[in-house]
Design brief:
This protein has 468 residues and is of the alpha+beta class. Helices cover 47% and strands 12% of the residues. The chain has helices spanning 26-30, 39-48, 51-68, 70-73, 108-112, 214-219, 251-287, 289-303, 307-317, 327-337, 340-353, 357-364, 369-380, 382-405, 417-424, 433-460, 462-467; strands at residues 95-99, 120-121, 130-133, 142-148, 160-165, 172-175, 184-192, 195-206, 211-213, 234-236. Residues 1-7 have low confidence and may be disordered.
């Protein structure tokens, strides 16, 4: 019989090796394309990729530092008044001329001076006094003196009447009425038996120099007790980086103090009503049935209640009269009337979660209701809760600003951004910085929290991970 031989396949494995060894694929060689991340780690990575949300987060951190650390660095009493710098803009001059105390005007010196032909200054104008001198007008029985902050126009109102003389030979006037370092337009007009003679109107533009006496400089800490500084020296007054308000109070210090009130209401109220809404909605969603229906009808009833009416009722109940700050009634009204939206949102999440398999497994193992709600359900809605909280904070801040603006919330002298805006709107044409700064802080804070809420909503949405 012929011998049969089997040719060995050159690619066959040796008989000692298993035919079932794993084959290293290209995917296994490269390893995992993405490391394993927890839910919160993945959310933080996606939040950092959102530039607007990160910038908003830093703005929120800066606002908190401005509120908590700022008063420790800028140690100026927000209620202290600087009468030498009333309604000063941030870039206004702080120079003050050291002068002697004001003395009565000696008119005998004018008799020796050359005669004048028009309205002029008898002495350099300061914030102590503006002394005017003019030529006697023929045919008049007296004079009227006016002061305006706009150029004089013979056909229109001449401004604030400062005085009236009934004799034609009285040709001097001294103005000491609330002088500031701004431009004034003085007008002298003759009085005839027929009335004012506007054809012979004399006007003068004057910008007083800020003056300070030695005693005032020492009282303000600008000079020491024994300093021998000559008169005419220019001193620097206290710095106010953001200017002062209409009472001479530092705007930066008042914005810091106002931030405490605004952010206290804007953060504490949402924390309280969101916490209550989460618990209320979780109970309603887990209980279901008749209990759920009754609890949701109560929430619908609370939604229908008018917030402003209850704010007024709470102020009356707390005995807070007109012109008094109603911080506590505002906080209570926000907490009692703002929770239904959170409760509805959490209820919807709980209705979905309670159908999950791990909830049924926990129930089979004997888990109690409070354990299921607090340990499993609410933590799984934490993303929705955080997003709701970030959107509730700007809403509460805006509500406080609105109520303070209309006089229902924080009342002066207690500062808040809303009450400061209410004060600033009265002088917005002449001193716009008193309105711009508190309004800017309100706008930036509300915008930052809204953009941060948008970023958190995208980062905490688990469905976004599956789409990437």
């Amino acid at each position: 019989m012929a011998e049969i031989t089997l040719d060995q396949d050159p690619g066959a494995r040796p008989l000692g090796q298993s035919a079932f060894e794993p084959i290293h694929t290209q995917q296994q060689a490269q390893g995992l394309s993405r490391p394993s991340l927890s839910y919160w780690q993945d959310a933080w990575i996606r939040l950092k990729a959102n530039r607007r949300a990160i910038i908003s987060l830093w703005i929120v951190v800066a606002l908190l530092a401005f509120t908590l650390i700022g008063p420790l660095l800028w140690r100026i009493d927000p209620a202290a008044q600087d009468v030498d710098q009333v309604s000063q803009s941030p870039f206004a001059s702080r120079d003050a001329l050291l002068v002697a105390p004001l003395e009565p005007w000696d008119l005998r010196a004018l008799a020796l001076a050359p005669p004048v032909t028009d309205l002029t200054l008898a002495e350099p104008a300061t914030t102590q006094s503006v002394r005017l001198h003019w030529a006697q007008l023929p045919g008049v029985t007296g004079y009227r003196i006016y002061r305006n902050i706009f150029p004089a126009d013979p056909d229109r109102a001449l401004g604030l009447p400062l005085g009236e003389y009934l004799t034609p030979d009285r040709v001097t006037f001294e103005d000491r009425l609330d002088l500031k370092t701004q431009t004034y337009y003085y007008t002298v007009i003759g009085v005839t038996p027929q009335g004012l003679d506007r054809s012979r109107l004399q006007s003068l533009e004057v910008t007083p120099v800020r003056a300070i006496t030695r005693a005032e400089a020492q009282r303000k800490g600008l000079l020491a007790e024994g300093d021998d500084v000559p008169l005419g020296t220019t001193l620097k007054l206290k710095r106010h980086p953001l200017g002062t308000d209409y009472l001479g109070r530092d705007m930066l210090a008042r914005l810091m103090e106002g931030a405490r009130v605004s952010l206290f209401i804007g953060i504490c109220a949402p924390l309280l009503f969101v916490a209550f809404g989460v618990l209320y909605g979780a109970i309603a969603g887990f209980a279901g049935g008749v209990t759920d229906q009754i609890m949701m009808r109560v929430a619908d009833f609370v939604v229908a209640l008018p917030f402003l009416l209850f704010m007024i009722l709470f102020k009356i109940a707390f005995g807070i009269g007109p012109g008094e700050s109603g911080i506590m009634p505002m906080l209570i009204a926000l907490v009692l009337l703002s929770w239904p939206a959170t409760a509805r949102l959490v209820r919807g999440q709980i209705l979905q979660i309670r159908e999950e398999g791990y909830i049924s497994a926990a129930q089979l193992l004997g888990a109690r209701t409070n354990y299921l709600v607090l340990r499993h359900m609410i933590p799984n809605t934490m993303g929705v809760i955080l997003v709701t909280l970030t959107f509730a904070v700007p809403s509460a801040i805006f509500t406080e600003a609105f109520l303070s603006f209309i006089g229902m919330g924080v009342a002066p002298p207690t500062p808040s951004w809303g009450s400061m805006s209410n004060e600033g709107i009265k002088t917005m044409l002449s001193h716009p910085h008193e309105l711009i700064f508190p309004a800017l802080f309100i706008s930036v804070t509300v915008l930052a929290f809204n953009l941060l809420g948008d970023g958190l909503r995208d980062a905490l949405d688990a469905r976004m991970r599956s789409r990437e």
